[in-house]
């Protein structure tokens, strides 16, 4: 980064100009605004609580702690829960026998199934799933492919109810923006961070506020994302395609954390298709016909099919062409850096030095990376840069040591090209981006796009016309619109895969696993919501009792 442009500290108090009309005034359930002074909200009472038992549906705190520990912390299997209950029961019997205490409470559950029924009965955080079955009903060729004949299941739940659950928790206290705002540092420079600080939120609020009846209301943008994940490589690449949602009001920090700022709302069925191309033509009567072509060619569609609109066409605030946010992970870190620049450097060594010498140089580069001393913030690479399966964190860690490792082996223009890209990349990875830093990013991207011609001159590339390289040009505009990209990065959904897909899958018996996974997700969310209510009511005093989905 340019020495005169240092990243601002999040703790710095900037000048904020909040929206004039969409001010998120407190109101009753029917929408009537409360009069000043606004009374302090009372803690939400556990929905199952009774005067006799505030821990309901659990008989007492011990039962709740036992359930939380085994189901959430240990993720115990049904067998392990049964064994745990047997040990608990044996302990009670021994206590009664030793102390002649017949009043000692018995174990609250006979077995794991009873235990699960208690969790299912929790009313807090209950957002259930529904299954929708559908199949292709359009034109078919004489020999239709398999995907045209199968029935698919879409598992989804109510987005609005999910958002209400996210907005109704105290989990994001201090990390939630109730209204759009503009922020400026002490020098008067515009500062962009959370989604609500961007031009888009302020612009949409201005549009809504033209209706006077909306004044005092709260704008709640919806952030949605979908990303494929694989749960089992050994058993045939079992894939899932979850869709996640998050209220745009939460801070980037909260959305990147492990809490419920991001929640799954759907699991998409993705048909397996083959290479043959579908050709739509018209017969002698003018009716459309569908046929399969064994060779790849341009798809032919009748005018009515060409005029299909995106599903967001009727959404008042959703322009699909504008709302596709930039992605730090797949476009910059894994894309431009790992898939392009690192690969091109290796290709250059083969072109410039031949196969044998290139392998020797690459081995020395690996030794240099391996020799990086332990230091806070630096990752060790025991195998050099040769990873079979890269992760985003690996690519980010390699960026810190890569320039030093390749120095002396490639032309200075290539080193300058990579250094310029890294300069731009580090700027947009900040959680807070000032106007001068954003201008420096734009200038760095322009320099990088000029410097990359060295790879063409060196014979590594014939041309550079790649989507992920081109995406860099759009970051400047999107940061102005949506704030810092780190709050909209696909690394957030990849992290969420662990709790919402991978761990629930491992807790299933692998047969019709998705239904079992959805049940685990709901049960985890119920326990999380109930735990938060207990904390808010002072029934639990340690932050260690709070767990995240």
UniProtKB/TrEMBL annotation:
<feature type="compositionally biased region" description="Pro residues">
    <location>
        <begin position="40"/>
        <end position="54"/>
    </location>
</feature>
<dbReference type="Pfam" id="PF18759">
    <property type="entry name" value="Plavaka"/>
</dbReference>
<feature type="region of interest" description="Disordered">
    <location>
        <begin position="26"/>
        <end position="54"/>
    </location>
</feature>
<dbReference type="InterPro" id="IPR041078">
    <property type="entry name" value="Plavaka"/>
</dbReference>
<protein>
    <submittedName>
        <fullName>Uncharacterized protein</fullName>
    </submittedName>
</protein>
